[in-house]
Write a structure and sequence with these properties.
Methylthioribose kinase, kinase, five-stranded mixed β-sheet, hypothetical protein tt1805, transferase, about 35% strand, alpha/beta, globular, single chain, about 30% helix
Length: about 120
């Protein structure tokens, strides 16, 4: 199975796209995740919508808005509203900032490891 992070942006206006992706794929939502990090003394979050793979293709998308949503904020409240609407819990983790990695791809490998170790996405077989 191919699992890929699809970054929509940093959570400003693109959060509305993330919410729409979740609403239009309610039957495919696997997880709603909030990955909190500390950036310059402020609590910021990456919000993720993890979908089940499509019936064909064996591809699992992980849509995210990376590290641009303050917690608490109106934008985070919109994500909480989504969770209530689709009847899913938001799973929250504290993670390192993407700025601590030389490349964004290394950051995504780090997140993949965390998600697999916590059984939130399946391992590659």
């Amino acid at each position: 199975m191919i699992q890929r992070f699809i970054e929509l942006g940093e959570g400003y206006s693109d959060i509305y796209e993330l919410l729409e992706i979740a609403r239009s794929n309610q039957n495919r939502i696997s997880q709603l995740l909030c990955l909190k990090t500390d950036i310059n003394g402020r609590s910021q979050a990456s919000l993720l919508v993890v979908l089940h793979p499509a019936p064909e293709g064996n591809f699992q998308p992980l849509y995210l808005c990376r590290e641009g949503v303050p917690v608490p904020s109106k934008r985070y409240e919109l994500f909480e509203d989504l969770a209530r609407a689709v009847e899913k819990d938001i799973i929250t983790f504290d993670v390192k900032s993407s700025g601590e990695f030389q490349e964004k791809e290394l950051y995504y490998h780090y997140l993949t490891g965390i998600l697999r170790l916590n059984y939130l996405i399946p391992p590659l077989i």
